[in-house]
Amino acid sequence: MMDPKPYHLLVFLLLYTLMLTSFMRPQMNISISVDSYFFSAKYVVLLGVTFRFDLFMVVAALPITVLTVIALTKWNEATDHPTASRSFVSFVVFLYVALLIANFAGNGLVMQNTLARFQQPPLAAWRMYGDLLMAFGEFLLTSIQSIATRQSIQIPELVYVLH
Questions:
Q1: Of 11, 37, 87, 127, which has fewest CB within 10 angstroms of its CB?
Q2: Closest Cα to residue 17, out of 79, 62, 77?
Q3: Where are the domains of the chain?
Q4: Which residues fall within 8 angstroms of residue 105, CB to CB, at 6 or more apart?
Q5: Cα gap 45→43, rounded to integer Å
Q6: What is the sign of the dihedral through the CA atoms of 18, 23, 24 and 30?
């Protein structure tokens, strides 16, 4: 049986936060405003980006993170078959990283595909997704602070003007 060390909790919190961030789903609200004057029209497209985060995502991120931390603690453990043990640890870490990359890439590609319909460059979608990830990180910190301060929190919404 493994003896938990203080840094195991730190590693767990870091990996869990990363997995929660990858499970967060972006939501986009698009508003089109058209101002017509005789034969000319001026239009503005507003994009409101926010995220969806629910209990399912919190619960789904827990087992893979716990399994990854347990596997990482077994890396230097003396066993009868060190190659098999390290292969299992490598598989679990690979599974964690693959799931992380798949979620981040999937979310970014969805935003990129949506913004491509409004002739926006792909890099703009990834920049917006990065901004959304930073807003989600701030939301997590605010959520933790709200436990102590008992203040209500709101999910942030980022607004962009598309031309």
A1: 37
A2: 62
A3: 6-162
A4: none
A5: 7
A6: positive
pLDDT in tens, 76-121: 777 777 777 888 889 999 999 999 999 999 999 999 998 898 888 9
Give the amino acid at 75. Answer: W
What are the contacts of 142-145 at 24+ separation with CB within 8 A? none
Which pair of structure tokens corresponds to residue 31? 């508003």
In terms of phi and psi (left: phi > 0; alpha: psi -120 to 50; beta: otherwise), the region of 102 is alpha
Strand-pair partners of 25: 52
The token duo for 55 is 């209990």
Of how many residues is the chain composed? Answer: 163
| pTM exceeds 0.90 for this model | no
